[in-house]
Amino acid sequence: MEDYKFLFKVVLVGNAGVGKTCLVRRFTQGLFPPGQGATIGVDFMIKTVEVDGEKVKLQIWDTAGQERFRSITQSYYRSAHALILVYDISCQPTFDCLPDWLREIEEYANNKVLRILVGNKTDREDREIPRHIGEDFAQRHGMYFLETSAKEAENVERLFMEIAVELMEQAKCKELPKYDGSLGPINGKTTSVGDSSCCLR
Amino acid sequence: MSPMRKIIHRACFVVSRTVYMTCCCGCCSALRPHYKRLVDNIFPANPQDELVKSNMEKLTYYSLTSPEKLDRIGEYLFQKASRDIYRRRHGFVIIAMEAMDQLLVACHSQTLNLFVESFLKMVQKLLESTDPQLQILATQSFVRFANIEEDTPSYHRRYDFFVSKFSAMCHSNHADTVTRDKIRLAGIQGLQGVIRKTVSDDLVENIWEAQHMDKIVPSLLYNMQTAEKYETVSCMEGGGGAEPPARLAEACLRELVGRASFGHIRSVLRPVLTHFDRHELWIPNDFAVHTFMIIMFSIQAQYSYSVVEALMQHLDAAGGHSADPRARTRVRAARATVLSNIVAIAAGDSVGPSVLEIINNLLTNLRSSVARDSEQKETDEKLYQEALINALKEFADHLPDFQKIDIMMFIVNKVPSIQRGNKGTKADAMLQSILLKSLLKVGTTYRTVELSKAFPAAFLEALLRAGGAGEAHARALLQRILHTLLDRRDNAPRLLRASVEYAELGLTVEKCSRQDLIFISKHGYALFSSLYEGLQLESNTMENVEAIYTTLALICIELGSEETVCDILQLILAIQQSGLTNPVLSVAQQCQLQAISISLAALIPHVMMLPRLGEYIHKIIAARREEAPHLLPPLREDYDDLHPSKMPSKLPYLMMDLMALCELLKAAGIEVGRLSASSPYAAGSAAAPHRHSWVEAGAAAGRDSLAELAAPTTELDSANSSPGLQRAGGAGEAVSLEALRRAAGGPSPAERRDAERRRATLNNAFRTAPFDQLLHITQPKYEIKDKLEEIFNSITEEPLLPASGSCSPAGQKSYQQNVPPYTKYFPELFLY
Ligand SMILES: Nc1nc2c(ncn2[C@@H]2O[C@H](COP(=O)(O)OP(=O)(O)OP(=O)(O)O)[C@@H](O)[C@H]2O)c(=O)[nH]1
Ligand SMILES: [Mg+2]
């Protein structure tokens, strides 16, 4: 039933193959898809979660990492409340590209967007990026940080739940217009959700 | 409905709402409001079964009679469907959607607005599901809604979710390709629906905003680019049935582009260009050509110029992600080729300023290409230049003739002038040759009818000036431009090689017109002396000599007549003479000049009835054939094995003789006074007096207003024309022309005297001064070219080069006060 209080848009970005789609499917469908093909353009998923007894609907836009789709994927940044930037902890190049991604985010996303850095595939033995390197990077750029494994379902739920909690807090403390059933979600202009630069946890 | 029932109704509603909130089990159905029961009844017991038709009719009837209930019905249907989606009872979801569709169509009333909110929530709900069937169903409902005209559309309604979701669907990657195509097709249909719904009313949602266009345009292109092959048709006929995504995407793009007003075109084009860059679709460029043709065909004609402009500005843009400069050049060339494919479509709709802007932009791109690679080592860069030149040609090809001349003027004035002796930079030389190539390309699209129209004085002057300078190859190019403009009867291909056997060439010769005679009387001397000088250059290759031969042969054919024959023969004799006496010429060049002068002489009897002249020439030819075949065509690169006794200067008896020619012409009844008079051509002299005055006229133009300029020019012109010809020039059109010029302000007696004196001094100087000094004097007082450059730059800023007609004599007064630079510098253009 359409009884949620908040609607947040979450966009995942990051190099091809880092596991964005797997993270989303793990979260929304509770599975780790075998042989997940590369995303074309943009994919869309929805999940409603409960925070403090209130329903929060997450609209998740999973973008393609391949360069050629950059033009269309960038157009989805703008309305995002939260941007999840994913890299693969077992693949140095995906980490090296982070500054490029930040530049894109800077250019196309709302400057108040909540930004989360995610190092995925912690289950892998061949780690190349130590945890603290990722953490440092996130700290320097005012981002949240989390390491996950879509495969082992590690921290995936937590990732999205923390986003929901944070966005809801921001929405509440800024007293931004909440989702109001009578107007319908389509008219909900994307409200910028407060300042996210502070409070690293 | 009776008032009583209404009250009960309300009461029921209140109760049921509370009940519903606490236990949505439907246990108190007796208390449920009427509309809910009606809604419940349309659902069959089994989700596999269909909508209960009779009950649906009841619901519809109820909605029509109680429209104020419509929003509650909508909300209730939505709630039910949400629950059913959650429980995966898709059969019921489909039925709920179907019911909403029917209500939407049936209930055209002011209350529709509220119902639409529930309807769209329902559509969104279905689109959010992962089930392709529901997504497709929702899209169909949305499209149906999009086709309904709402009386008062809701201005707070936003469509970004739909644009986002439909765009995502356009990129579906569903494992099953049939399903994938269905989802993509639905996505495109959905986008088409959003466009139709919003495009006519900016208040609803500005669909042209970047956030929307950046999703819609790439989604359409992505579906188009997967098509097997691209056949562009100028318009699509509405083919029904199951269309492949590519076809529908194309139709949708056409519709979008067709609806774009001027302010919106850029927002469509920008994502198109980005998409081609990102997906590296420039090479091979068939898809790019296809797409841009589609855009050109569907855009409102008056805006087609913007497409050309956008593509031109994008030529140099860093595209894709390849940093390799060679790859960049290839992309650039591919873009230019696309440009050359569409520019013709724009030409038909372009007017004044846009025409010159396009040309100027193409030239600027050529210039920067040359700057990048003046060594011409890069074949890719060369391909790029070729593509740009082709675009120029394609564009010019579709312009009216008078604009072609404007364009040629424009180009010729961009040609960097390279002074004889001073070679200029390599880049200059390169640019010169590239611009001349462009000029040639444009020239080939022009169909000359009247020579005076093809060669406005300023244009002719600029051409001849360019012809005297630069590298040998560039000079030959310039002759080729003259060929294409002079040759009205397609004789040029037959006259590329010098020959004395004209009978078998199948030349087309017609009597030349009055206008042509006026033209040659005005400009003949300048033309002839420039060609003559062109033959005196040490650096001439055989190509140069032969190219000038072709020009002269074409002049003979196009302008040969009793009035002109003396001048032509005089020139031929002068060429013959220079081939004997000009010390800078090599033996080969001397022989070549002999060969072309006899060839030209042999052509004259083919143009005019002068049989005895023909006999005379052929006697000489026969004698040369015996004794000195090297003085006859075909021309050779070298004549190294020539015995000293066979040097042209050693064979005076094999030369054409002035006195003999005079006699022959006299016998044919032609006035030969001018031929027998002393030749104005001085062998080895780089500049004839007339040429100088020509330059002078240009220089004067740099200083003076049109009024002051006109008269002295005329004076000098006519003074230098031979008297006989002046008679011809005085008749007919020339009178009105003269009158026009005088209307622009006659010369004061003082000015007249001034001009007279200048001319006298000059003539004197040429008779007495040594060659070097003459050369020095004849250098223009300052760089005309620089001045022209300045003017043309100012033209590009100052948008419009007005059509020649706009400066009528009636408007003369006003434009003397406020003379735009181009009328000042090219007065002839505006007087015609
Ligand atoms: N070991 C391990 N492999 C993973 C994990 N997440 C994803 N993968 C694998 O990584 C590959 C790419 O995963 P995707 O989810 O398709 O990556 P993506 O970021 O969506 O890629 P694009 O859609 O191309 O941008 C797949 O083969 C997954 O099986 C993980 O947590 N652990
Ligand atoms: Mg993916």
From TrEMBL, chain A:
It is a lipid-anchor. It catalyses: GTP + H2O = GDP + phosphate + H(+). Its cofactor is Mg(2+). It comes from Trichoplusia ni. Keywords: Cytoplasm, Cytoplasmic vesicle, Golgi apparatus, GTP-binding, Hydrolase, Lipoprotein, Lysosome, Magnesium, Membrane, Metal-binding, Methylation, Nucleotide-binding, Prenylation. It is found in: Cytoplasmic vesicle, Autophagosome membrane; Golgi apparatus, cis-Golgi network; Golgi apparatus, trans-Golgi network membrane; Lysosome. Signal peptide: none annotated. Its main location: membrane. This is Ras-related protein Rab-30. Transmembrane segments: none annotated. Belongs to the small GTPase superfamily. Rab family. Pfam families: Ras.
Automatic annotation (TrEMBL), chain B:
Residues 713-732 are annotated as: Disordered. InterPro entries: ARM-like, ARM-type_fold, EFR3-like_ARM, EFR3_Homologs. Transmembrane segments: none annotated. GO terms for biological process: protein localization to plasma membrane. One of its GO terms (cellular component) is plasma membrane. It comes from the Eukaryota. Residues 715-724 have a biased composition (Polar residues). Pfam families: EFR3_ARM. Belongs to the EFR3 family. This is Protein EFR3 homolog cmp44E.
